[in-house]
Amino acid sequence: MQLSRSLFAAVLAAIVAVAMSPASGQILRYANQGDLKSLDPYTLRETTTTAHHSHVYEGLVGRDKTLKIIPALAESWETPEPTRWRFHLRHNVTFHNGDPFTADDVIFSAGRVRATGSNFTSVIPPDARFVKVDDYTVDVVLSSPNPILITQWDAWLIMDRKWCEANNSVAPTPASATTPSYASLHENGTGPFFIESHQPGVKTVFKPYANWWGKPEHNLKEIDFTPIASDATRVAALLSGDVDVIEPVPIQDIDRVNASGVARVMTGPELRTIFLGMDQARDELLYSNVKGKNPFKDIRVREAFYKAIDVELIRKRVMRGLSTPSALMIAPELFPLSKDFTREKADPDAAKKLLTEAGYPDGFEVTMDCPNDRYVNDSAICQAVVGMLARIGVKIDLLAQPKQQYFAKVLKPGGYKTSFYLLGWQPGSQDSYSVLHDIMGCRDDPKDSTRGEANLGGYCNKELDALTDRVLVEIDPAKRDQLIKQAFEIGIKDYGYIPLHQQALAWGVSNKVKLTQRADNQVLLYWATKQGE
Predict the structure, then answer these.
(1) Is 297 left (phi over 0), alpha (psi -120 to 50) or beta?
(2) Is the CB of residue 171 less than 8 Å from the CB of residue 164?
(3) 3-class secondary structure for 479-532?
(4) What distance in Å separates the CA atoms of residue 108 and residue 480, rounded to the nearest whole number?
């Protein structure tokens, strides 16, 4: 019996479709230059760590592939009045241990994320009051309107109250902790994956959560994450097929990966700004040969450091053209008026003159803190800065460390123990307010304990803070942008920071893998598909 021509064509099309579709149940192997140390989602506010956590934990809201805010554990919300938000929680959601998700977990998480030791205290205003309406409805009551309240909540991940209480994990694990907590070694989220095993510094294995409330967009049965600090080893692992995805690809290896025939480099602009900061708070620097005073309290010294740094040279020599020098502490994509700002050109002679006027004709010595496994060419950037400052007589003792040790030292839980540092930051809100509040805000605000949480150097200008408060409540976009512009102008005039550039994304991806690349540089493998081996 022969098949009809139309039936034969249909069968053939089905066979081809199956052959071309991604095979189900694939193992995806991912390597990053940095480690995943703590599984506590409130320990470290750092993009790569948050991306790992977002596979197993979820927020009330999320972001889609274009960074648009979307519903997650809250299926909808409204503002019945300007100072009250009402969130309607998703029903029939369970944590990985089977506990039901309810309003109690939201209220508990709102307290935990603002507690001492959390690195996420600024994602919720300190005056926000969470009120349980019923098991699946929560009100957030504010003292004043906040139109961008939820813009950072995709990184505020909800925890199970019962599980935390049962495992002595009610308090968040600080980045400076020397002994791991239960929550730093185990997880219990609601997300699309659960963690089967976690060996910090070695390997973390993720498996799909069968009872996840959403519809999976991946075809994976397992994700194996391995930290590989060595650039050469990481690239070799990708090209040999030992791993499927790496981040980042060293700039010098991009062409080689693209020419390999087995993998490609996904590139694009990132929204993160890399910058230098100086301790302007202490009366005497912790790490300097200058005693009895703090050179960075003198604006002439800060201006001298600014003028000594040649961002164009960093772009050409260190970043090989894959960076965008910045005049501001925010990416131009996130602030329409960024085009009104121009960065001063490097001027070592003027810098040397300023140091002499400030009383340091022979320069001085200071330690610089720098991560060596967090940003693209971070250690090389710091080494370039060392050389540039040497030209004006400043001797830099460079302390470049893995990010876990670096963040434990310089962040708030570690006591901001730094005199001069490199940091990268992208506002989780995708809005200038977060930069002005978290990075450039004064740390001593008695009314807002979260202001300046990521202001490691203690830069402070009350006029800038006053403008920041107006930015938060201004609803007219044009007026709001002008307020933001005024605030950034103050920061520039003060030489409060030294912005360097926005780095470029560079992910190495096997040709067997399809992956979505977002401009926030979160490698989210729940959107990954992989062809069969």
Answers:
(1) alpha
(2) no
(3) HHHHHHHHHHHHHHHHCCEEEEEEEEEEEEEECCEECCCCCCCCCCHHHCEECC
(4) 34
Structure tokens at 196: 């089967």
Nearest to 393, CA basis, from 352, 358, 350: 352
pTM: 0.86
Query: Could you tell me whether strands 74-81 and 84-89 are parallel, antiparallel, or unpaired per DSSP bridges?
Result: antiparallel
Per-residue pLDDT of the chain (533 residues; tens, 9 = 90+): 444 444 444 444 433 333 334 456 899 999 999 999 999 999 999 999 999 999 999 999 999 999 999 999 999 999 999 999 999 999 999 999 999 999 999 999 999 999 999 999 999 998 999 999 999 999 999 999 999 999 999 999 999 999 999 999 999 999 999 999 999 999 999 999 999 999 999 999 999 999 999 999 999 999 999 999 999 999 999 999 999 999 999 999 999 999 999 999 999 889 999 999 999 999 999 999 999 999 999 999 999 999 999 999 999 999 999 999 999 999 999 999 999 999 999 999 999 999 999 999 999 999 999 999 999 999 999 999 999 999 999 999 999 999 999 999 999 999 999 999 999 999 989 999 999 999 999 998 888 989 999 999 999 999 999 999 999 999 899 999 999 999 999 999 999 999 999 999 999 999 999 999 999 999 999 999 999 86
Q: Are 52 and 69 in contact (CB under 8 A)?
A: no
Q: Checking DSSP bridges between strand 220-227 and strand 26-32, what pairing results, if any?
A: parallel
The CA angle 416-421-422, to the nearest 5 degrees, is: 125
| Residue with token string 């099309």 | 13
Q: What is the dihedral of CA 84, 90, 93, 96, to 10 degrees?
A: -50
Query: What is residue 355's DSSP assignment?
Result: H
In sequence order, the 6+-apart residues with CB closer than 8 A to the CB of 152 are: 122, 123, 427, 428, 429, 434
413: Cβ–Cβ under 8 A, 6 or more apart, which residues? 117, 119, 174, 175, 176, 177
* Token pair in block for residue 149: 């309240």
At residue 174, φ and ψ (nearest 5 deg) are -70, 155
Calculate the CA dihedral of residues 124, 126, 132, 138 and round it to 10 degrees.
-30
Q: How far is CA 492 from the centre of its chain?
A: 24
Amino acid at 460: C
What's the CA gap between 27 and 179, in Å, rounded?
32
